[in-house]
Amino acid sequence: MKNFPLLTCICLLCLALTARAENPLRDISIAYGREHTRVIAKKNGQMLVQVTGDDLRKIKVKGSVSYKDFGAKGDGKADDIEAIVAAHAFANEQNLPVKIKGEPTFYIGRKALTAVVRTDTDFGKASFIIDDTDVEDRTVSVFLVSSDHKPFKIENVHSLKRNQEKIAVSLPSSCLVTVTNSKVKHYIRYGLNQDNGSDQTDIFVVDKNGQVDMNAPIIWDFEQITEMMALPIDEKKLKISGGRFTTIANQAESKYNYYSRNIAISRSNVLVDGLQHRVIGEGEHGSPYGGFLNIRDCSYVTVQNTVLTGHKTYQTIGRAGKPVSMGSYDITANRALNVSFLHCSQTNDIDDRTYWGILGSNYCKNMLYDHCVFSRFDAHKGVANATVRNSTLGHMGINAIGSGTFVVEKCTIRGRSVINLRADYGSTWQGEFIIRDCVFIPQGGKPAQASLISGYYTGQHDFGYTCYMPEKITIENLYINDANHPDDYEGPAIFTNFNPEMKEATYVEEFPYVRTKEVLLRNVKSASGKALRLSDNPLMFKGVKVIEE
Predict the structure, then answer these.
(1) Which terminus of the chain, N or C, has less C-beta within 10 A?
(2) What is the tens place of the pLDDT at every residue in 171-203?
(3) Are 91 and 157 members of one domain?
(4) Is 96 helix (H, G, I), strand (E, B) or coil?
């Protein structure tokens, strides 16, 4: 490409402008007015992007940036990651969208580089091959959707109360606030993947006057705060659309070495629309994945019209010294609020048990599935308020612990129960379940003992918090398709046997379980014609009031 005439670009030629993009692996500099537009990756880990004045003018006239502007081949063979990183760095500085036309195929190889995305990006019909068979660093994201704002510490708040409506701060704008108390441990995991717990953590939105958004309230009492961080929320929505991504799966040893060659989203107010992700090349062994869409430390994120893929399940030896199946995810959400999945599905059979459940989450609030067909909904370290509606859930069903209200509405559930309360975190839900207008097909139609709410709690393990069952459960217009059942089937139960060891009233829970107070039933029917029972362990649930209307 030719340069501007000297008089029209002399200011650019004289400009010693250096732009630094936030990138975990590269210090990127952009220099204008050079002889050729090119990307130079230096041995010291820096990247220099040179842009001629003529190319700058043409890109601005075009109104968008493409990867080929920075030398990407798009032939599916040459590694284009350096051009992709450079294009986004330039787009961020010039505040221009990235738009890919045609149907190129961009190959992304072993290099540990991340493209930081801060402007609207339309991948269009472009394909991306992410080759994980030999990588420099498995933990490095391919794309990071990042905020223009920087997080900052809040120093003058020393304690918090559950459901506190206001904190004594003055902020530049609405912020996402994360609070930690390293002196208290929660989620002290039980079972084959046992651990010593995690620091007490909460995350919520506060306006500039310190008013807490009570749609995602503070859920813990903090007697002490060891760290409190705030990240201003971007007001403008950033849109990521299109793109056909294929991961060539790693062939690593089957250990808990998670791969994160993904699209990470750590900016609030983001829409992902029309993306596709597939996985090929899975063999007899491999390391698990931490989510192709990794949503973290943000709020107001919507993923819609998107197709994802479940990962093959591999086994390893867990912390208890016994074989365990490793969780491997195509979606993860961590410390994220108001995350919605609309009209999404997965490429593989949601009842195929050789593939792990597609979602894993921690420390989230207000999560939504609407018109989704997925193998699983899962909340590990707690979700506050969740809704699954107009959706079909496969072999792993709905697994959760947390608080607030969990609504399951107009869904088909094909797991072992309608809702499973995760035993490894105390089978706890401090709040309410509402199940209405649903069809429950136990174990996807295989012979099974049907129970609506499942979990396991012996009362002998300290999880770091009091464990609850939902205070109230409302089940309305539920059809239980239990036609295919074992010979000894006595009919569907509201609760599974949470504690087979509790056989007598003298059983003592060292850490008492707060049980459900009331179950309200309206129009619950079964294909077997058998009546709904309380539980195989009526002793444990003798204090539960069941009301049939």
Answers:
(1) C
(2) 999 999 999 999 999 999 999 989 999 999 999
(3) no
(4) coil
